[in-house]
Amino acid sequence: MLSRKRKPLINDTQTLLGLSHVSALSLSGISTLIAKGVYDAAFPLHDVSVLHEEWARYSAFYKYQPIDLVRKYFGEKIGLYFAWLGVYTQLLVPASIVGIIVFGYGVATMDTNIPSLEMCDQRLNFTMCPLCDRACDFWHLSTACGTAKASHLFDNPATVFFAIFMSLWAVLFLEQWKRRQISLSFSWDLTGIEEDEVNSPIEKLTWKDRLPGYLINVSSILFMFALTFSAVFGVIIYRITISAIMAMSPDPEIRHNVRVTVTATAVIINLVVILILDEIYGAVAVWLTELEIPKTETNFEERLILKAFLLKFMNAYAPIFYVAFFKGRFAGRPGNYVYVFNDFRMEECAPGGCLIELCIQLSIIMLGKQLIQNNIFEIGIPKLKKLVRTLKEKETTPKAREEEKPPQQWNLDYALAPFEGLTPEYMEMIIQFGFVSLFVASFPLAPLFALLNNIIEIRLDAKKFVTELRRPVAARAKDIGIWYNVLSGMGKFSVIINAFVISFTSDFIPRLVYEYMYSPTGTMHGFIDHTLSYFNVSDLKPGTAPQNSELGNITLCRYKDYREPPWSPDAYQFSKQYWCVLAARLAFVILFQNLVMFLSLVVAWVIPDVPKTIVEQLKREKKLLVDVFLQEEKEKLQLIQRLFAKDATLHPSSNTLPPGQDLPIPGRYSTLPSGPTAGEDRGGGGPRARCRAASFSQFNRNIASSPMKENENSKHTAV
Fold it and tell me: What does the similarity note say (predicted)?
């Protein structure tokens, strides 16, 4: 449908329905007319009765997607997106089941976990150093009992198995999609096609013309990175200041819940900042890509995807990376803390470790993005726009409404939102794939929440494409394009991230080292005391000691680190245990990466890229093709032999062959298979073969036939 400004222009049915299969050249011409203001829009009309009943309804969530119908209606490009989303969602099922089992293991062993029991045991009476200067008092480790038990839910031996499993799952997902894509390419006849290209009408530009655009791109992306880091740093300052303010409160309940309150509010602030910056970065990525003036539509799309992914990846994961790898690692020690702006002490991890905080951060950001950005925005904003249009229509006078004709389909479709490409749809799923794979060691339930979201997401996207957006022009595509490379890169990156999360964020390696190197009984008894160092309270800097401590006169306090005690000649220096644990952590990273990479290669090698059914079908087609070729060659040889026999009958004197010489035999210069001789065929009563063009220059009547020659020539007749 073509729509002029202020008044739709309808020429004929061809104009209405023919846009679903226009060529790239025609589409380029229409786009040029729209850019010049001749038309408002161009789009094919909707006719979605079958798709709406079988696909675009929430009540059809349990059904398989009619991918072939989607492809016929929207084209191969959108069909491949929904096929990919279906494969991704199906493979989340086994990942969710394993994640639930791992979480269940943590719940089942929570009450028997020795380190958690030691932290909750008040008889051990570990007196910890203050968490802030002046306002914070000494405290007992047993008050963090709840945090220790919650940490064990995600920081247990099963977590390592789950991290390895999810790394292999990412490889399995890519291999399964590769097989599915090949099957669709075969059934949709996409092999060997070239994707639809829409060339830019701009003349060829030199590098000098493009240089300003590239400089603006680089500087803008660096500025956006700095903006993201500034937002993360601002939230860190918020956490530090609010912690200090709440610690000075006279209410003991507020002081007791400082860590939980600060963590939850900081994560919510992070989520709001991420949602706002996501929208800004999406618009900035489009603007920066337009400055580069790409030559083709595919080129434009690939550059836009790279920029948008880079900015949104950094925006979504920067707070999580901070908690996983930086929080508490540069805070210093009692008597020598690191300060921000000379007043605010850097924050430390919870007594149970940073993994529980990483789990809270990951779960809130992941669930918040899925609930708010992916669902409420996609459902609420279109519904709100439709409500505004309905209210505007009601404002017309009754007389005007009576004079109006029933709305035609092109008017209904023109009121829908324009289709803006698949990049936003892919992007939200790729970011979700990162939550599922990158930090899954800290949150085993991530695949389950992703599965529940995707069950709704498939029908939500289907309903949006069918009822909320104008029908896009069908475009052919061989595959999902650059998104496969992004997924592959994230799968490999997840192996590294999970290795470092297990090694440096969780307590898996320190527990392993203690049990096999330092435990007197070979068990985990005494692990908490082993991980706590001593500090002499008299070594605190002036003005930083607690005022009016409720625990009385404290001379020694404990803090979590591997350092020499104050009575050692190397007081407060890193101990031998620290270097042993560090070496074990680095060794685990190397071992984990190599093991997972090797298993990934094995999985990729075991699973063939082409399904067996497709291989067998290709073999059958090849055999039929060879049979047809052989039959045609045989008919051609019979025709030639008949012509020779006819020539010999008409001119017996001139065509008398020397004794012992028969009709020409296909040999070195012929690829024809051997057939019946002329004498045998002459007496046959079969139908005459239809005439075919043949080259007689391949035959030489003067070539003498011999058994040796015949055997030699017969070697060249095999097909």
Answer: Belongs to the anoctamin family.
Task: List Cβ neighbours of 124 (8 Å cut-off, separation of 6 or more).
Answer: 118, 141, 142, 528, 529
How open is the CA angle 259-260-265, to the nearest 5 degrees?
105
Cβ atoms 37, 3 nearer than 8 A:
no
C-alpha distance from residue 114 to each of 122, 184, 468, 523 (Å): 14, 53, 56, 9
Cβ atoms of residues 494 and 438 within 8 Å: yes
User: What is the pLDDT at residue 535?
Assistant: 92
| pLDDT at site 261 | 85
Q: Helix, strand, or coil here: 556?
A: strand
Alpha helices in 369-414 (DSSP H): 377-394, 398-403, 409-414
| Structure confidence by residue, pLDDT tens digits, 542-556 | 888 887 777 778 889
**Across the chain, which distance is largest between two alpha carbons, in Å?**
135
353 DSSP assignment:
-
pTM of the predicted structure, to 2 decimals = 0.80
Cβ neighbours, 10 Å, residue 531? 20
115-147 pLDDT, tens digit per residue, is 888 888 888 778 888 888 877 888 888 888 888
**Distance between CA atoms of 231 and 311, rounded to whole angstroms?**
14
DSSP 417-455: BPP--SHHHHHHHHHHHHHHHTSGGG-TTHHHHHHHHHH
- List the chain domain ranges: 210-348, 506-607, 615-643
- The pLDDT value recorded for residue 263 is 84
